[in-house]
Design brief:
The structure holds 2 protein chains of 2 kinds.
Chain A: E1 25-26, E2 32-36, E3 46-47, E4 54-55, E5 60-63, E6 72-73, E7 78-87, E8 93-101, H1 119-128, H2 141-144, E9 155-160, H3 169-176, H4 178-191, E10 196-202, H5 208-223, E11 229-234, H6 243-251, E12 266-270, H7 271-283, E13 289-295, E14 303-308, H8 313-319, E15 329-332, E16 339-341, E17 354-358, H9 376-380, H10 387-396, H11 399-404, H12 415-419, H13 426-461
Parallel strand pairs in A: 1-14, 9-10, 9-12, 10-11, 13-17
Antiparallel strand pairs in A: 2-8, 3-5, 4-7, 5-6, 7-8, 13-14, 15-16, 15-17
Chain B: H1 17-39, H2 41-64, H3 75-85, H4 93-108, H5 121-132, H6 134-137, H7 158-171, H8 195-200, H9 212-224, H10 231-247, H11 252-256, H12 263-269, H13 271-278, H14 282-289, H15 300-320, H16 327-344, H17 352-360
The chains are: A alpha/beta, B mainly alpha.
Chain lengths: 472, 361
């Protein structure tokens, strides 16, 4: 395997990992939580509790039979208040369950470590744990762990790159729970039958290799077993944590457009995801809390906080020290790919890893000017696309050109927009372009359906001569 | 509370269009200073007039078109400096103003302003002036003490190079000295200009192109600040040098084949390419004109192709053409080809190539 440690392109935003030496703090003071029923890629779950029910921590409150869906658990103990609509961070209405916490955090007495004897047991356990990709994509983990037949991965990559500025929640988790990470890795290696695992991290987190070396050494000493788990340092370069770049940097394998990691024999898991696998197998406690990084100029106190899923952002900010100044921008996630929120009363979801609260100084949006074709976007694009071409095509709503410039292959890492000296909103054009193409595809499919239906209807009634309708 | 909502990313790099243009101006300061030393106060006046008129035309044209004022982006200043550096020191001031007018209003603003001009506007203005005022644009003065054979030069490139090249050919005892017709136009056979004096700028030429040292200092600044990447200059100068070595007046192979071990022979043989690189507008063209963002390709392979094309065209014009200067026309011609080069060299998305290989095997 060729380790190349980086990829072509990328940008170097200021790391701002201000919180990497601060131990995480567990916050419990939340009067109520809003647990969204749609926290993953795939269909939403439906509630299985009714208002007035008493729920424990870890109790299933929503589920779905769809194979992609994972159950959602209560993150507090208390009374279910209502099932209501909230607005998701991206502006879509979604259902959420509001639970009034009694502040006691009583675990569900029925929680027990799962008994695992086969791969199917393992996958069922991972699904029952409510795990989705915690790096931000929220792809259900049990689907990822079960690649289609004939696509058996030969290497497990653990993504600890955490390339977004500010965010240190994965790093703190590595510092604080390395044993659970190794447990999770070993379980995946055992049940998915992968001989090798590589943990990849960026070189701005200096302790990672020492922590894991110590942890692995301890295990060799204790059990005598040696596992093929390697820890590799990558160059700090955004977006090193993007799946395709990460795979290329660690293995030299290139995932072709439209393909998935298992097409090149790789399974990639976020380090926090794998930690939850380890924890769940040991304790049976599903994903109900997570560590998030709180940072930004408008906050009094920065750090990592362990909070229940569904906790309101304003409650978290309040519990973590409050605001220093009036915020002008609140981000869910990092500054490169995070979503800016228009409200502070929404609850956090499983895939959240940071809440960044910025004051007016850091959020000034520079005015846009004409493209000078400096090609910084081209040089920074890790997917080798031409963002300036996509930008022009999207503004013209030129679908043909959008396809020509391969807009659908964009991973929306934001490197082009970050590096643009003309401050053009390239990423916005790209998302608009993608929407245009999706809408056109949808429209075309609809047209085809209607055409097929009308053909069927007309052929049934007047079988013979209709020269207009195409046959076959 | 009012929260700002925008598409990611939420942070931006510090570099702006204005900061890039400012860096280009800074990179041109050594050349401006050198021109002041070599040609005196008049050169400085030319630069100031050119910059001032470019800025004024930029402001006025935006005003007339009722568009936002783009003077703060510094691009008009860059145009002004580059245009002035490509003018002979004796040019009447009003012609400089006409050149600025052509560059800013006709080539830049009429095509949509910065980012939309299809050719380098400073070079286009220079060519416009060469065609409109041929005698004024080719009247070179040289500082006192410079080499005598420069005094009567009309076109600096081809004709000036003929004499030293003829001497060189004699030294190699080759019988092909009569091959070039250009040698007949210049009677004098002065001493060979030393490469050092060419490098420092003791020669006739446009005010900014003569001092190679100053230009290279500026180019180094551009590389260090990552304003330009080396592909275009590398391909341009590289292809031009190779062509001169292979097909010049005294091809390298011909020159050294009788005595390949003699250092003197090698020094003589390499004089021609060095002379060719150090004279005319090649260095300022390769580092400051051909690398103009707007009119050069955006991919690395496109940039290499662009530089290669510039090198070939410059060689053809200098050795076989009828014009004094090859650099401006080569760059302008390649500027026009840039959209096609971009299309030709469009990069494939990450991972795509491998997919195709897999599909075929």
């Amino acid at each position: 395997m060729a380790n190349v440690f980086a990829f072509r392109g990328g940008v170097h935003p200021k790391h701002n990992k201000n919180t990497d030496v601060l131990p995480s703090i567990r916050l419990t003071d939340f009067p109520e939580v809003d647990i969204s029923l749609h926290q993953q890629i795939g269909p939403p779950c439906t509630s299985v509790v009714a208002p007035g029910d008493y729920v424990y921590v870890g109790q299933v409150i929503a589920r779905s039979d769809h194979p992609m869906a994972v159950p959602i658990h209560s993150s507090v103990s208390g009374t279910v208040k209502e099932l209501h609509h909230v607005v998701s961070p991206v502006g879509e209405p979604i259902d959420a369950i509001r639970i009034e916490s009694d502040g006691k955090y009583i675990d569900d007495p029925s929680l027990a470590p799962p008994v695992i004897e086969s791969k199917d047991d393992f996958l069922a356990a991972v699904r029952a744990s409510g795990l989705v990709g915690l790096g931000g994509a929220a792809f259900p983990t049990h689907i990822k762990l079960n690649p289609p037949a004939g696509k058996k991965p030969d290497v497990l990559l653990i993504n600890a790159a955490e390339c977004e500025p500010y965010i240190t929640s994965d790093y703190r988790m590595i510092c604080e729970n390395p044993d659970q990470i190794i447990d999770g890795i070993l379980a995946v290696m055992k049940w998915v039958d992968i001989p090798t695992a590589i943990i990849g991290y960026e070189d701005n987190k200096p302790l990672v290799n020492r922590i894991f070396d110590h942890e692995l050494g301890k295990r060799v000493f204790k059990t005598g077993e040696k596992h093929d788990i390697r820890v590799l340092k990558l160059r700090t370069l955004y977006p090193q944590g993007a799946e395709k770049m990460f795979i290329y940097a660690l293995t030299g394998r290139r995932v072709p457009p439209g393909k998935l990691p298992h097409d090149v024999g790789v399974l990639v898991l976020n380090v926090t995801t794998v930690r939850w696998i380890g924890l769940y197998l040991k304790t049976g406690m599903p994903l109900t809390r997570r560590r998030i990084t709180l940072d930004g100029s408008a906050l009094n106190i920065h750090g990592n906080f362990n909070v229940p899923i569904g906790a309101h952002i304003q409650d978290i900010i309040e519990a973590a020290g409050g605001l220093r100044e009036e915020p002008t921008k609140i981000l869910m996630g990092g500054p490169m790919m995070g979503i800016s929120l228009d409200r502070m009363d929404s609850g956090i979801i499983k895939a959240n890893n940071a809440i960044l609260v910025f004051g007016s100084k850091e959020t000034r949006v520079p005015p846009e000017s004409a493209c000078i074709r400096c090609a910084r976007c081209v040089m920074s694009c890790p997917m080798y696309l031409l963002p300036n071409g996509i930008d022009q095509a999207a503004r013209r709503k030129d679908l043909e050109q959008l396809n020509y410039f391969r807009v659908m292959d964009c991973i929306e890492c934001g490197s082009c927009t970050y590096s643009c000296p003309a401050k053009r909103f390239l990423n916005q054009s790209i998302t608009n372009g993608k929407k245009l193409i999706r809408a056109e595809k949808e429209r075309y499919a609809q047209e085809q359906r209607l055409l097929a239906a009308s053909q069927k209807a007309s052929s049934g009634k007047e079988e013979q001569d209709n020269p207009q309708s195409p046959k076959g | 509370m009012k929260l700002q909502v925008s598409n990611s990313p939420h942070i931006r790099d510090k570099a702006t269009t204005a900061s890039i243009m400012r860096d280009v101006v800074i990179a041109l300061i050594p050349a401006c200073v050198a021109s002041g030393i070599i040609f005196g106060l008049r050169a400085v006046v030319l630069i100031l007039v050119s910059v001032l008129s470019c800025v004024v035309f930029e402001y006025l044209s935006r005003k007339v078109m009722k568009r936002e004022n783009t003077v703060p982006d510094f691009s008009a200043v860059v145009t002004g400096v580059l245009l002035a550096l490509n003018l002979p020191p004796t040019l009447p001031i009003y012609m400089v103003v006409i050149g600025s007018l052509f560059a800013i209003i006709v080539v830049k603003q009429m095509f949509g302003g910065l980012g939309n001009n299809f050719v380098n506007h400073a070079l286009a203005a220079r060519i416009f002036l060469v065609i409109s005022f041929p005698s004024q644009m080719t009247r070179w003065t040289v500082r006192e003490g410079a080499f005598s054979f420069f005094d009567s030069l009309l076109g600096k490139d081809l004709i000036s190079s003929a004499t030293p090249l003829a001497i060189m050919r004699n030294a190699v005892a080759d019988s092909a000295s009569g091959a070039t017709s250009s040698a007949t136009t210049v009677a004098e056979s002065g001493p060979l200009p030393s490469l050092l004096s060419l490098f420092l700028g003791e020669k006739g030429g446009c005010i900014g192109e003569v001092c190679i040292l100053a230009l290279l200092i500026g180019a180094a600044y551009l590389f260090i600040r990552k304003i330009i990447v080396p592909w275009i200059p590398l391909a341009y100068l590289g292809s031009f040098t190779i062509l001169v070595l292979l097909f010049g007046h005294s091809p390298l192979f011909e020159a050294v084949r009788y005595d390949p071990l003699s250092l003197d022979v090698w020094a003589d043989a390499l004089y021609e390419p060095a002379f060719m690189l150090l004279t005319g507008g090649l260095i300022i063209g390769a580092f400051f004109m051909a690398t103009d963002y707007v009119t050069s390709p955006i991919t690395t392979s496109g940039r290499l192709l662009f530089g290669l094309g510039c090198g070939i065209l410059t060689f053809l014009i200098r050795y076989y053409g009828n014009m004094a200067e090859g650099v401006s026309f080569s760059i302008i011609l390649m500027n026009i080809l840039t959209p096609h080069i971009d299309r030709l060299t469009m990069s494939k998305p990450f991972g795509e190539r491998r997919a195709k290989k897999n599909a075929t095997t």
